[in-house]
């Protein structure tokens, strides 16, 4: 796979690379955050059409996410905490699907002001676009005026490229509260859909109470909402793979080692969307020593290594350690993973991938270390059962 980074100038213009225009390309574009099943359907269609037409397969990947840029403008924070996945993980998934070329475009407000007609002309003239593949409700260009209907009309009028629309919406729509905030479940065990057994009247009442808005079932917005409510299995089903975050293992307070549960503690520089506070079952994957640079190719290589890297079942904690935080004075949000391994794992300085398979319980304050240890033993056994099922 070839990876090319493109940075628009202050006017939003891109200096396009020299390409062999004799070989036309099938291309799609977007942020592809999470690489969920809808994204996978679009990517697979690009690869399929490229093979049919003996063309190249390409993706134009926008980074940061357009929604993040438009929400914050020039005052955007350094880290997009709502991004489900890092660029490297998205690129690695595209490579696995058979994509040959990824153009990583630095998304800016100036770039967003280009009209969809101008932009598609650039793709055709500069990159040799033969076919553009888009999801059913995609829209691009200034004011998002380039929806699939407008682009279909443009393709028919010019005859220089084709538009192929993929139904990437999944099983209809769901409704999520308009201004929802992460909410830790109060009960032990995987949360269920609160509307699972509701009738139409109850659904309308819930929707009105929460000012709910419709979103596609297969959407990054829905996945974030599910993760923010501890519904890991529902989120993973939409993603088609376990949700994961990556980070470097650092030294912590070593409080877990003192009670017989040594954990791998992730530093504050975490890539991926953190689910709501709680204890989870999942996996810890050792990706090796942390790379010295963070260019897209290096990050993709790190994500690529996950397929063959050592991995262990793990009980994962996200939160502020309520049992000990008052004593230490530390209330920062931390991620810890206790690996179900008979051997001590020295992972300091390594980048690890933490994958989530299920919600176990909320974070609660125990009366002391003995009560905490008893609960941790139960969490480990449940983790063993869940991950054994995942393995099979």
Automatic annotation (TrEMBL):
Residues 238-388 form the Riboflavin kinase domain. Keywords: ATP-binding, FAD, Flavoprotein, FMN, Kinase, Nucleotide-binding, Nucleotidyltransferase, Transferase. GO terms for biological process: FAD biosynthetic process; FMN biosynthetic process; riboflavin biosynthetic process. It catalyses: riboflavin + ATP = FMN + ADP + H(+); FMN + ATP + H(+) = FAD + diphosphate. Coiled coil: none annotated. Belongs to the RibF family. Pathway: Cofactor biosynthesis; FAD biosynthesis; FAD from FMN: step 1/1. This is Bifunctional riboflavin kinase/FMN adenylyltransferase. CDD domains: FAD_synthetase_N. GO terms for molecular function: ATP binding; FMN adenylyltransferase activity; riboflavin kinase activity. InterPro entries: FAD_synthase (IPR015864), Riboflavin_kinase (IPR023468), Riboflavin_kinase_bac/euk (IPR015865), Riboflavin_kinase_dom_sf (IPR023465), Rossmann-like_a/b/a_fold (IPR014729). The lineage of its organism: Bacteria, Bacillati, Actinomycetota, Actinomycetes, Bifidobacteriales.
């Amino acid at each position: 796979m070839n990876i090319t980074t493109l940075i628009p100038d202050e006017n939003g213009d891109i200096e396009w690379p020299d390409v062999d225009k004799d070989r036309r390309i099938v291309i799609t574009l977007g942020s592809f955050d999470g690489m969920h099943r809808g994204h996978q359907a679009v990517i697979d269609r690009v690869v399929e059409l490229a093979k049919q037409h003996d063309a190249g397969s390409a993706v134009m990947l926008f980074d940061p996410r357009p929604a993040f840029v438009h929400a914050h403008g020039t005052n955007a924070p350094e880290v997009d905490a709502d991004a489900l996945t890092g660029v490297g993980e998205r690129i690695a998934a595209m490579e696995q699907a058979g994509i040959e070329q990824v153009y990583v475009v630095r998304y800016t407000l100036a770039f967003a002001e280009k009209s969809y007609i101008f932009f598609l002309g650039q793709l055709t003239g500069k990159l040799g676009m033969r076919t553009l593949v888009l999801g059913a409700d995609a829209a691009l260009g200034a004011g998002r005026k380039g929806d699939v209907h407008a682009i279909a009309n443009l393709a028919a009028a010019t005859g220089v490229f084709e538009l192929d629309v993929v139904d990437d919406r999944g099983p209809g729509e769901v409704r999520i509260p308009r201004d929802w905030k992460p909410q830790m479940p109060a009960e032990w065990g995987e949360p269920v859909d609160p509307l699972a057994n509701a009738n139409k009247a109850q659904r309308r009442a819930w929707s009105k109470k929460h000012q709910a808005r419709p979103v596609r079932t297969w959407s990054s917005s829905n996945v974030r909402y599910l993760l923010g409510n501890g519904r890991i299995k529902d989120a993973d089903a939409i993603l088609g793979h376990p949700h994961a975050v990556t980070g470097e293992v650092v030294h912590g307070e070593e409080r877990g080692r003192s009670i017989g549960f040594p954990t791998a503690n992730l530093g504050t520089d975490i890539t991926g969307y953190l689910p709501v506070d709680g204890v989870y079952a999942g996996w810890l994957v050792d990706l090796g020593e942390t790379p010295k640079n963070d260019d897209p190719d290096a990050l993709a290589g790190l994500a690529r290594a996950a397929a063959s890297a050592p991995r262990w079942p793990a009980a994962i904690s996200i939160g502020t350690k309520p049992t000990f935080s008052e004593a230490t004075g530390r209330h920062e949000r931390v991620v810890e993973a206790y690996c179900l391994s008979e051997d001590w794992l020295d992972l300091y300085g390594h980048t690890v991938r933490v994958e989530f398979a299920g919600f176990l319980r909320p974070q609660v304050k125990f009366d002391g270390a003995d009560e905490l240890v008893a609960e941790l033993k139960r969490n480990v056994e449940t983790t063993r059962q869940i991950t054994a099922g995942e393995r099979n």
